[in-house]
Amino acid sequence: MPDDDELVRLVGKLDLRAKVRLLSGESVWRSCAEPAIGLRALTFSDGPAGVRGPGWDERRTSLALPSPTALAATWDEILVGRLGGLLAAEARRKGVDVLLAPVLNLHRTPYGGRHFECFSEDPLLTARLGVAYVRGVQAGGVAAAPKHFVANETETDRLTHDVELGERTLRELYLAPFEAVVQAGAWAVMSAYNSVNGHSMSENPLLTTPLKDEWSFDGLVVSDWGAVRSTVAAAEAGQDLSMPGPWGPWGDRLVDAVEAGEVAVTAVDEKVLRLLRLAARVGALEGLDGNEMSGHRSSADAEAQAGAPTESLAGRGGTSDADAALLREAASASTVLLRNNGILPLPAACRIALLGTGATAPRVQGGGSSGLYPAAASSLFTALSAVTEVEHLSGVRIHDRPTPVDAPVLVRVLGAADAVLFREHRLTGRILETEEVPGAEVLEISSALHVTNTGLWRLAVAGYGRLTLDVDGVRVVDVVQPVDTDDPAVKHLRPPHHVAEVRLTEGTEVELVARRELGEDSGMASVLAADPPPACPPEDFAAAVEAARRCDAAVVVVSTTDSIESEGCDRHTLKLPGEQDALVSAVCQANPNTVVVVNSGGPVLLPWREDAAAVLVTWFPGQEGGNGLADVLLGDREPGGRLPTTWPGSESDVPIHDFLPEAGSLRYREGLDIGYRAWAANHTPPAYWFGHGLGYTTWDYEEARVERNEVRVRLRNTGERRGREVVQVYLSRPDSAVARPERWLAGFAVVTAGPGETAEAVIEVPERAISHWTGKWLVEPGAFIVLIGPNAGDTPLCLRSENALQPW
């Protein structure tokens, strides 16, 4: 890699206009190239649970990893690092240089609609897994861009709300994971949409202090898409690259500002230097005439990468055996066993009533910009049917959102007088992007619908502008949908639907034609949807309960939907949608051997949890979720997960309720007490504590000792199977002169042992765990109490007084 002197020399070869041009995107997903210095465009892709690649095209599939909440549930840095390496390989195959991930924001409350993209409620766990993720990705030559810097825990009014919080809370909680990944060598950081203490994050002093000066971050600060909204203020701050482009507030306006003396040219030079440094790290900088730098991609490679992205093995229609095995391992390792009365693992010869829509159509990912088109999707029904007798019924319907046509469609872009400017065949009625052509006025989606059921079909069209829907030439929808949001997650991914109910006859075929205007700043997202008459009438509920009654065991899969857990919206209830709770309760009464599987990205209420024989959380498990879960249910693998966030028993018990902005402001009044810290402070037990999770064996915590900054714990496997335990160390300081949480996570380690064997866990406690912020990091003299156990609410070992952790 060239040193900074070489990079500075390249910056000096550019005039002001050329420099400023590099600081905005060339397009939605690419930065600008500069042939004069051998710089090709950088290609960006959304993450964090896979590499979609630039754009949205269902024909380009991707490996789908477990959601970040699932990755955090593994408490396994080695596994997360391996998955980071898989992401890097996938990025390289797709021609991606920068992966916009991981998400390091915290689960401040369980109501965050996008929390499935975040690791956990704890800064230490988030930091350690974030570091593993970043190192795994960057070891493969692809830049990670941890996001969203900073305090971006709420989706409501996310573009504009101002987070108000104290410096200590900011430092000890919300900045801590970012500091850790920067110290680990992150090559980029993404600034957030929101403001913090009165400054938009693209203009915030935090981009300079502590990020660039105090932490010595030498990478690139890239904006969230559309987050740069000013010329001078953002340019004077630590913001380096404004995405997307070429539109935006920089460009010619920034040139004018520099020439007018409003922005220093040295600030521009610094931003370009950081861009070139990132380009060199990912192999996008060859140097003048392509000969001055060595060790990077050839010109031919750069040209290929700057063009249409190459396809991964997944994109060519498959997944390698090694990739599938790793994703399957991750799905099992992240599955959390909340409760088990001994029914699990299930016996080999077991007739199973498998209930719920998620058993055949699982949610493998959350909604929003992290979405991708999975290369595969294993279902629990398919996995279990291969080894035992299974009877499946849905039982209940969980959402009413129109379903995009899942069949070949013809997409046409039309100009004046319906002139066809572009046409292509696609695989689904959900079209988020297609060819942009001059003079485009209308996007049209058409498909032949084969009617499978007689009755009222729900047909829908979605988008902005004038929307029409024709059925065999008869117009059933004709409305104008104004652009009513600035949120890109809504505008470009989830536009409003308009529905018509049309009676159709089984065995016929009808032509559906949906059209929408293409207006300025309205995006291209358009949907043609068709749903048959409701598939779950009341008798299906009874049939599901009856199936449970006659089988040896019942497995009920309950799920959230992408209208509940998605970018761009927060949750207003933690209840499961539809009649799923009623179904679980009825099945538990019908069959005492009922196992409930929770397919959600974050906490939901489990009012029947004490009635079920076993409860598992499978999160959004990625494309191998069905196979990984079957491995756990049948005992081929242990459920390896531990909760990365606390699960409440009721909504009234949730400690923090003010998660929505008021008059544009969101105050973090709780300070340091979020998650399990808040539960501990309130002395109200949750349903399941942070860190909770059972395996297929049991453990006895026998003794512990402290040796300076290490806690050594001896424990014994008291069960009949080999097992894995996550040993957690929490600190407390009730006599402190400084306000502190009642307890906080200070370290953790994993041990494995066979039946009757002992194991020693060695947990290193970093000095930061006993430090507090008062304008600088300080350690209060005196002893800290060390609490050791399997979760935040169960710490059977406690070291006090002379045996307690001491400052070092």
UniProtKB/TrEMBL annotation:
SUPFAM superfamilies to which the protein is assigned, alphabetical: (Trans)glycosidases, Beta-D-glucan exohydrolase, C-terminal domain
Protein's organism: Lentzea guizhouensis
Record-given protein name: Glycosyl hydrolase
TM spans (from-to): none
One of the Pfam families matching this protein, by short name: Glyco_hydro_3
Record domain Fibronectin type III-like: where: 725-792
GO MF assignments: hydrolase activity, hydrolyzing O-glycosyl compounds
Signal peptide: none
Region spans: Disordered: 289-319
Organism superkingdom: Bacteria
Keywords: Hydrolase
Family per record: Belongs to the glycosyl hydrolase 3 family.
BP GO terms, sorted: carbohydrate metabolic process
